[in-house]
Design brief:
There is one protein chain. This protein is an all-alpha fold and 70 residues long. It folds into 2 domains: 30 residues; 39 residues, no CATH class. The protein is 76% helix and 0% strand. The chain contains 2 helices and no strands. The longest helix is centred in the middle third of the chain and has 29 residues. The chain is elongated. The termini are close together. Keywords: Membrane, Transmembrane, Transmembrane helix.
Length: 70
């Protein structure tokens, strides 16, 4: 299940980056949907990094904040 989510996330990020770089090369503005999806993906990335950092910090002192068992 996690593998499928990571795969879809990677496809979305690749599509957003390629669209934004193509629009920058052609010197035209990005469509609003491209900007919105880019901001959502940026938020997901920041949120996941904060959750993983909190888990790593908690387990380094012996108090895991999340029950991540994979």
């Amino acid at each position: 299940m996690v593998g499928a989510a990571v795969f879809v996330y990677g496809l979305l990020v690749s599509f957003i980056f390629s669209g934004a770089s193509r629009n920058a090369k052609l010197r035209r503005p990005n469509p609003p949907v491209l900007d919105y999806v880019g901001y959502v993906l940026c938020g997901i990335t920041a949120g996941a990094s904060l959750v993983l950092f909190a888990h790593a910090a908690g387990s380094s002192v012996g108090m895991p904040l999340l029950a991540l068992t994979v």
